[in-house]
User: What shape does this take?
Amino acid sequence: MDSNASNARLEGVIPPLLTPLRDRDALDLEGLERLVEHTLGGGAKGLFILGTTGEGPSLSYRLRRELIRRVCAQAAGRAPVLVGITDTAFVESVELARFAADQGARAVVAAPPYYMPEGQPELREYLAHLIEQLPLPLILYNMPPLTKVPYAIDTVRWAIEQPKIIGIKDSSGDMTYFEQILLAAQARPDWSVLIGPEELLGAATLMGGGGGVSGGANIFPRLYAALYRAARTGDLERTRELQRRACLVGEKLYTIGRHPSALIKGLKCAAALMGICLDFMAEPFHRFRKPERERVRAALEEIKDLVQDV
Amino acid sequence: MDSNASNARLEGVIPPLLTPLRDRDALDLEGLERLVEHTLGGGAKGLFILGTTGEGPSLSYRLRRELIRRVCAQAAGRAPVLVGITDTAFVESVELARFAADQGARAVVAAPPYYMPEGQPELREYLAHLIEQLPLPLILYNMPPLTKVPYAIDTVRWAIEQPKIIGIKDSSGDMTYFEQILLAAQARPDWSVLIGPEELLGAATLMGGGGGVSGGANIFPRLYAALYRAARTGDLERTRELQRRACLVGEKLYTIGRHPSALIKGLKCAAALMGICLDFMAEPFHRFRKPERERVRAALEEIKDLVQDV
Amino acid sequence: MDSNASNARLEGVIPPLLTPLRDRDALDLEGLERLVEHTLGGGAKGLFILGTTGEGPSLSYRLRRELIRRVCAQAAGRAPVLVGITDTAFVESVELARFAADQGARAVVAAPPYYMPEGQPELREYLAHLIEQLPLPLILYNMPPLTKVPYAIDTVRWAIEQPKIIGIKDSSGDMTYFEQILLAAQARPDWSVLIGPEELLGAATLMGGGGGVSGGANIFPRLYAALYRAARTGDLERTRELQRRACLVGEKLYTIGRHPSALIKGLKCAAALMGICLDFMAEPFHRFRKPERERVRAALEEIKDLVQDV
Amino acid sequence: MDSNASNARLEGVIPPLLTPLRDRDALDLEGLERLVEHTLGGGAKGLFILGTTGEGPSLSYRLRRELIRRVCAQAAGRAPVLVGITDTAFVESVELARFAADQGARAVVAAPPYYMPEGQPELREYLAHLIEQLPLPLILYNMPPLTKVPYAIDTVRWAIEQPKIIGIKDSSGDMTYFEQILLAAQARPDWSVLIGPEELLGAATLMGGGGGVSGGANIFPRLYAALYRAARTGDLERTRELQRRACLVGEKLYTIGRHPSALIKGLKCAAALMGICLDFMAEPFHRFRKPERERVRAALEEIKDLVQDV
Assistant: This one.
């Protein structure tokens, strides 16, 4: 199956790409190149840029465009690029989508506008207006802890009826909701139902999910790709074993520091320690300082065996 | 494996028993008898009384004792009875546990005290004091939407080291947390890791969970027992198919009426329409009125085929 | 105005009485006696027992009854006693209310049942059933951070039309809601609109509120009584000055320790250090250990001048 | 006192200006001009543009700049203009601030970055970086229901020590927090402590607050200006009476429709019915349809007498 063909269902592990930075408004170009190769070489079936893990909303529009341009160019012909266009301003989302289309992106990804507390009927109307203007197919991004407003299940059912909407990435962690989507999406074989949290990749795929947007795949793409394949082929024992490993990776790596941003910081710091890219972060975050960095280094040592030979 | 033996791990489907009432402070005795036979006859591997579905916290202590006495007597020698002792007052929990032990219950079940906002260190101390006084093993009941305070994963890890604590029922709906518990409980083969939401019974069991406390098993015990068995034996196709049915049951039956109590009310009303027991509810809930009752009747008709031949 | 007369509106500062304990299920009798004298002698216009500050839900029913009996006896003829009957079980609330009536209490106080997630229509029905059975007038207790379910403003408007409901204690901290109640309660001059958080006693009284259920009045009753009087008589400068002091007391005394229980623990520890009563706490809380106790001692020294000469 | 002088403390009623639109990305120019005259003529002491009520985050950057330019030009020499620069991207906030400075704005206003869940230490660092780059003084905007992250009181205390930060607009509705700020701000006589919710304007001003950013002042500026003056001069009876009116305005006008956006929609619809400006709204909101519009018309009729003769 050629997952890059424009009519193929997106599936497999699609990392939410970190955005390597060397300053608040400057890309770490070498790091970005290495990161793209590292993930694609490790079995990633696509790249999702400008998501939460990619610090999308924290970046200037200028830098977002530069990132889109570079990743699309580098991945061209090898893997589909999905571009986050989530924004509180409709007009800015549309402009970014047009730019992404021009650069060869495969689809755009949008969470609900995340400042105003819109109701679900307004959210449906927003989506209806948005897909009218979009030059690319749309994937929904459900992330209620950050957007406050979820894509409620009825809104997802409506979306499944819109040809231009081709899937969802669910980062809610709510597997009941995920099961409800699987049930509803039976009507659209081309619809991608992707799970966010990597602790759920095994269960989600066993139950029929199409893949995962796993943050950990930035650094250990083989582990998540293997976990996905095991679950996809119904190898229960191996699924449990690889999921156990993925959970341990998270326990060690995403729990350093006091702030809710521990996951993104842990990933970016680990990527830096592994020589992939710099760990500079855009405000409002900052990279780990020395003590946390040492804890990440120790965690990487501890999990070394878990992420090999997969 | 004799799941009633006092040293066997609790597993399989254990319904959180509805409490049939004929008045605010009076049991529906015939209904209760029928309900116990209906669930045990349908494959339930135990009975959990005085939980949320059983309206435990809404019942007088006198009635709670009467319920314990009757269910223990009826189930004696056939299935283990687990008794909810969740309370805001430590002394009342202990007294109820003693009564339950005298009546032959197998274990008691406790959620965190749910009025005061205790921290996790206090919660661990609470558990330490509690198990000192308990004449029976304890199963944790994680239900943060109602108790506000969760059993945080570190508290569960501590609990896994306490011989007197023998399992957890997780109703959080958070599968990442559930996976973390599975990982930690590998150290205790006698520990029961049970899932609350029936939409997750398939996924939880596939990943290694020990069973479910499925509300729907009050009325359709065979469906949930079959789903559990399919997942337990690794029959992926049948697991997906039966989980799909279970999700549809929930979509039809637990979404009637505007209030968050829709699940309990839907179940109790359906049980009444099926001739199992009365649908009287203790304050602060009230049974469905006529229009909702008719919608439940229609839903039962719609899902009729889903719950047969399992 | 004789505020003890059964038809007078309850007003002024009414402390939510700490429950002095010498063990989990035993009152500190001498401490209780001293506490009642300390508060009444300091200007308290009534006593509210078995509230949150009194750890009501954490106490056994036996102990709750003993507390009611003793406080009613000691306060008889001097100040009205309000008894918390908040419970998840309707039958237990009613029984406690009957006992309170027999002992001479002036009114009972009830928050919404705090386990089940009832809707507002159910809550109104609950109140309607409850007042039918109550031998005493009822005061609502709005405490959404602990009960999850609030008394929504429409429910309060309904309550204002019920002769048997005579007021509300609002601990939500939401002054917009408080203003809405003041507006609605203009129709019932006998209705008491009391504010919970002591940081709001000045503003609430200036805007027309009837008094406060101020936790700090357990230890510094004169400060809160003086603040209430200043605001009641429109002395703006003195209100601001005394409110400033009350805020400083809270900043110093209620912020020790990491847990959300800091307020109750700070108060009980301070009361112990002031020689009023023991600081034993019922589960799920425990009294401050040595380091926190020393910080409370230091805080008391710091605020010494603020609470004198009022 | 010349409140337009660059060193004077901002105080009084400063409306959070609606943004009159004739399309998603086009200003209603005549409406905007009328609205500015209506508010300034009604006693507004400044104009706050691009806040929540102004739908700031929903507008394109191009339109935001046009709005800044026009309002600054129209208000020049008459009233200070405060410009919302709240953004998830640091670089965009700074660029907007520079533009605002060039156009003659008096200060900029920023809520915490509202997508990422930064901790308070990160938020302080963010502010430290931001004020280094800002060409204008900064006013904090505390709006936790929409930003998720609040300016915690310790962060506000830190801000009070930064000369470049000159005040806060608190829209949390948490008067305890507001009192704590008043206490802390005694050290900075030039600091403006402004209240958001208009139901709290009376209480906040009586306790020492410096004014209000009252949405209702878009349409009834005289009412809020009069309420502020009454409270500022200590006229308790008139404060209560005018606050009562302001609360009734809110009860009638901000409770139409099912969605949490009722306040902004009610205001914009009322402004349209009063002939001030169009009621077009940017996504994700839409203007009221006919039935809600008729209810707003009826509400305006009902409250007509409340907002006159002030």
In short: The two ends of chain A are 22 Å apart (CA to CA). Chain A has a mean pLDDT of 95.
